[in-house]
Write a structure and sequence with these properties.
The protein is mainly alpha-helical. The protein is built from 3 helices and no strands. It has one domain (about 1-85). About 70% of the residues lie in helices and about 0% in strands. InterPro entries: MFS_trans_sf (IPR036259).
Length: about 100
């Protein structure tokens, strides 16, 4: 858990340098809300499905959505900040290809 928190808090000053305090508060609030809402959801899923590991199914879905969402946002912000990174420039065999082929 601490590794996940460290990754999230590491990106805040990089991508929101002028709003570090408010973003940290927002992330903390969402974490506290998750600590309140998730146990309730676990109980509801256990009652509805009747399988004890249903809480892990919910966690798997939440983690999957979070990973895709965070990766997409960071990739979009990196392209916005560094437009020269567009296209596969790091592959030596593709350096001769024009940029128009890559959207």
């Amino acid at each position: 858990m601490s590794l996940g928190k460290a990754v999230v808090y590491k990106h805040i000053p990089v991508y929101y340098p002028h709003h570090v305090g408010s973003m940290n508060a927002l992330v903390g609030m969402i974490g506290g809300l998750g600590g309140f809402v998730l146990p309730i959801c676990f109980g509801i899923m256990n009652d509805a499905i009747g399988v004890w590991i249903s809480c892990f199914m919910l966690l798997f879905v939440i983690v999957g959505v979070s990973v895709v969402w965070m990766h997409t946002l960071i990739a979009l912000l990196d392209r916005k900040i560094h437009p020269e990174l567009k296209g596969p420039k790091s592959l030596p065999e593709m350096l001769h290809l024009p940029d128009e082929e890559y959207p």
